[in-house]
Design brief:
The protein is built from eleven helices and eight strands. The protein has about 270 residues and is an alpha+beta fold. The protein has a four-stranded antiparallel β-sheet, sandwiched between helices. Strands 1-4 form a two-stranded antiparallel sheet. Helix 5 packs across helix 9 and helix 6 packs across helix 8.
Length: about 270
């Protein structure tokens, strides 16, 4: 295709949805929708023009309408279900000794592909450690990093309350991985300005979707922070050259079931 879009004139009804949906305003209307000048270099290949077309008339340089999954409106949950599902998400800090199936991990990573990300750059890559023994080793290396912090930067060690992790570890209690069998880390090019929010939103998608597969998660800032600067852990995690870890979660089958949604502070909002 030599243009960013191609319109089937036999199907197009001239509704203008593709024009309104284009985030860059790259489509205009003559007899039928056409791209503006220089649109080839400006298009981010988000596919919104294809996704919104009611008749399947629109094709885009990176996708055809038949390549896009149709939305089943009957699967869109009611607000009461959405509200309870999202409010009931908990950070799980206890896991049973059961491995996480690779198929389920791939299901979650597939969901994360559709998370919002800056300019549709899709630069987030995933590091998955799906082995209980290696996860425990990573937790141990995180403790080693904390001990180095204790020696070299005691003020940070105190401020971050790292003793809450080190002391229990030395007594045989793992407060790093919490016994989870799997670690998932979102990484992206180190100097990419859109990477931090993109990675964290993608991790959040995984955490929200996991309960539907019977899984629990918790964000692990300890492992993620250690992996940003501790060479042995960077090597162990397999972080690619030039990439940076922006978000890490452990995942596994919860050992406990929550029965209530805990209270939270009232919404703090300023209307202007």
């Amino acid at each position: 295709m030599e243009t960013i879009i191609k319109v089937d004139e036999n199907l197009c009804i001239g509704c203008g949805s593709c024009i309104r949906a284009c985030p860059g305003g790259l489509i205009t209307k003559k007899d039928f929708p056409v791209p503006i000048e220089n649109s080839w270099d400006l298009c981010i290949d988000c596919g919104h023009c294809v996704a919104i077309c009611p008749t399947g008339a629109m094709s885009q340089r990176s996708m055809e309408p038949e390549e896009c999954e149709s939305i089943d409106i009957h699967l869109i949950p009611r607000w009461d279900r959405v509200s309870q599902f999202m409010k009931s998400r908990r950070s799980i800090r206890g896991y049973i000794k059961k491995p996480v199936e690779k198929e389920k991990i791939l299901q979650l990573l597939d969901i994360a592909r559709f998370a919002p990300n800056g300019a549709n750059r899709q630069l987030v890559r995933w590091l998955v450690i799906n082995d209980h023994a290696r996860v425990h080793q990573i937790a141990e290396m995180t403790i080693d990093w904390m001990k180095i912090v204790r020696e070299k930067n005691p003020a940070l060690y105190e401020e971050a309350k790292l003793e809450l992790f080190v002391a229990p570890w030395e007594s045989g209690s793992d407060r790093i991985s919490r016994g989870a069998p799997c670690i998932i880390t979102a990484c992206a090019p180190k100097d990419e300005r859109t990477a931090p929010p993109a990675a964290m939103i993608a991790v959040a998608h995984i955490q929200l979707a996991a309960p539907a597969l019977g899984l629990g998660t918790t964000f692990t800032g300890t492992i993620n922070t250690a992996c940003q600067s501790y060479p042995p852990l960077i090597k162990m995690m397999g972080l690619p050259e030039g990439f940076f870890p922006y978000g890490t979660t452990v995942i596994g089958y919860p050992a406990e079931t929550y029965l209530r949604i805990p209270k939270r502070n009232p919404t703090d909002v300023t209307w202007s």
